[in-house]
């Protein structure tokens, strides 16, 4: 691997190549070729980054929020100028289609736009004469050094969920991106320095489990944001809270999409296809299980299979006609294949089968085609595990009540959606479904930056979610001052001295 470019870390405003630690390759999954190598940094390197962030904190805290916002606004303009380059980087290291990559970057930019409102978002509250002659006010102050641990599936958006609002609130930040997709984060961080972000305010450390453990254990890290699988989210939340840290930890999902008999067939089939197979199913908001109610199976499923069968799978880094790209690694492809085989062996019927997908122009790529499994039953492999790939379970139910009951039996609670023309059915679903993000005739109900990404149950651990005003509350602490003045009329601040 020595011929590969090493991915540098950013510590205290300086980029440097780390030596003497293990490395892991960064792949272009469209062709299955390594394009860089990521250092698996150790606790000592993480400590250097934390110390740099701690040293930068006092001056950054004293920087007026409007000045912090101006830096972020400059960064936003620079990212717009480099938008296509960023999207290409996302496609190259992740495998998203160009349209998906642009969406990844755009949703990240929306979070920077939100953070630019820091002067308003950080305004406190006050009440004159809370008691006779006594005033009270509440202000928000930053925590100090905070950290973010991000997944591979959204190289731009998820890191930008975290550090722009965190630094807008006056904190300094340690970012640990996925070792599988480090290039996008480094590119954005370099532009942040160009925009005028002071050294040490944003630091980027690459690595795996050792760095994550070091973040959790470090006494100067006051808060941790995490997005990833449920088992790791649960562990980080428990361990971080036990050490007195604030933790917001978003985990996995099993999102249900209910299809009612009165659903408009064409847009429903398209919406279901996009929910299940967008980003090759590698997102926590993927519609991984469709519950078709009554006669919906006879109308929507044939249209869905027709659309899915025509999806072009191919190398997204070079084929503009490709509508779905690869999964992230060869190992992940094999895992998805194994889960589909287990479900088929248990009685599920593949209406489309991604196990047979081959891409002639990129034989080394990590491709798994869009798979629709009909007659899936609770307990089958693809129902019990988060597949995180282009696999759609289809479950047939007789009525809305049974469908809601099945969806609510899941341990997860990220998103859920219903396709229907009935306002009554939609209202009933919205009221009773046990999920934090609900779509009505929208397959992927992911909220925009000013609303919280509000997973429930085993999809989220913590009290304050990512995005929106909850993120401001997470990255700040309130200070309440109660004031009374004595000696009225006994002196003057205007007296000459």
Please summarize what this structure is.
This protein is α/β, with parallel strands linked by helices.
Count, helices: 16
The computed structural class is alpha/beta
Helix fraction, binned, reads: 25-40%
Strand order of the largest sheet: 15-16-17-14-13-19-20
Tally of extended strands? 23
Q: How would you describe the shape?
A: globular
Key features of this structure:
497 residues; alpha/beta; Aldehyde Dehydrogenase, Chain A, domain 2; seven-stranded mixed β-sheet; 16 helices
Explain the overall architecture.
By secondary structure, the chain is α/β, with parallel strands linked by helices. The chain has two domains: 5-251 and 459-481, Aldehyde Dehydrogenase, Chain A, domain 1; 255-440, Aldehyde Dehydrogenase, Chain A, domain 2 (3-Layer(aba) Sandwich). It contains 16 helices and 23 strands. The protein has helices at residues 43-62, 65-81, 83-94, 98-115, 118-121, 157-168, 183-194, 209-217, 230-242, 265-277, 296-309, 330-345, 381-384, 400-408, 423-432, 468-474, and strands at residues 5-6, 9-11, 14-16, 23-28, 33-39, 125-131, 134-142, 145-149, 172-176, 202-204, 221-227, 246-250, 255-259, 287-293, 349-352, 371-374, 391-397, 412-413, 415-419, 437-440, 456-457, 460-461, 476-484. A seven-stranded mixed beta sheet has the order 15-16-17-14-13-19-20, sandwiched between helices. Helix 3 (83-94) crosses helix 4. It is globular and about 85 Å long. The termini are far apart.
């Amino acid at each position: 691997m020595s011929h590969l470019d090493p991915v540098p870390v950013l510590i205290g405003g300086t980029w440097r190549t780390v030596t003497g630690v293990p490395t892991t390759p960064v792949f272009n999954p469209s062709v299955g070729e390594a394009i860089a190598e990521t250092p698996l940094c150790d606790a000592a390197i993480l400590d250097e980054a934390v110390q740099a962030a701690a040293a930068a904190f006092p001056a950054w805290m004293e920087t007026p929020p409007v000045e912090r916002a101006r830096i972020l606004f400059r960064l936003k303009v620079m990212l717009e100028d480099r938008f296509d380059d960023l999207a290409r980087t996302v496609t190259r290291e992740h495998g998203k289609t160009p349209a998906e990559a642009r969406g990844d970057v755009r949703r990240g930019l929306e979070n920077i736009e939100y953070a630019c409102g820091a002067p308003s978002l950080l305004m406190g509250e006050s009440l004159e004469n809370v008691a006779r002659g006594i005033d009270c006010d509440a202000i928000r102050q930053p925590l100090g050094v905070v950290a973010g641990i991000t997944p591979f599936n959204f190289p731009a958006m998820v890191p930008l969920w975290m550090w722009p609002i965190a630094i807008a609130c006056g904190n300094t930040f340690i970012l640990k991106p996925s070792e599988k997709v480090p290039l996008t984060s480094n590119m954005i961080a370099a532009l942040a320095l160009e925009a005028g972000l002071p050294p040490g305010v944003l630091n980027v450390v690459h690595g795996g489990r050792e760095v994550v453990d070091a973040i959790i254990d470090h006494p100067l890290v006051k808060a941790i944001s995490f997005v990833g699988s449920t088992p790791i989210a649960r562990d980080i939340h428990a361990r971080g809270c036990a050490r007195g840290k604030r933790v917001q930890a978003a985990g996995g999902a099993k999102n249900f999409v209910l299809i009612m008999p009165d659903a408009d067939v064409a847009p429903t089939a398209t919406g279901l296809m996009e929910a299940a197979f967008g980003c090759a199913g590698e997102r926590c908001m993927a519609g991984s299980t469709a519950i078709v109610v009554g006669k919906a199976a006879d109308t929507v499923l044939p249209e869905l299979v027709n659309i899915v069968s025509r999806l072009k799978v191919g190398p997204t880094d070079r084929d503009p006609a490709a509508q779905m790209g690869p999964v992230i690694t060869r190992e992940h492809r094999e895992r998805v294949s194994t889960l589909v085989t287990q479900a088929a062996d248990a009685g599920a019927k593949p209406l489309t089968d991604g196990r047979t997908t081959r891409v002639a122009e990129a034989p080394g790529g990590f491709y798994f085609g869009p798979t629709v499994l009909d007659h899936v039953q609770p307990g089958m492999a693809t129902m019990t595990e988060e597949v995180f790939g282009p696999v759609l379970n289809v479950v047939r139910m007789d009525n809305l009540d049974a469908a809601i009951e099945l969806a609510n039996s899941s341990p997860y609670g990220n998103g859920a959606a219903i396709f229907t023309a009935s306002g009554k059915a939609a209202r009933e679903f919205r009221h009773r479904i046990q999920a934090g993000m609900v779509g009505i005739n929208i397959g992927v109900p992911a909220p925009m930056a000013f609303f919280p990404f509000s997973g429930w149950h085993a999809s989220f651990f913590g009290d304050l979610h990512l995005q929106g005003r909850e993120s401001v509350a997470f990255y700040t602490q309130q200070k309440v001052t109660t004031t009374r003045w004595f000696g009225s009329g006994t002196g003057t601040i205007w007296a000459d001295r």
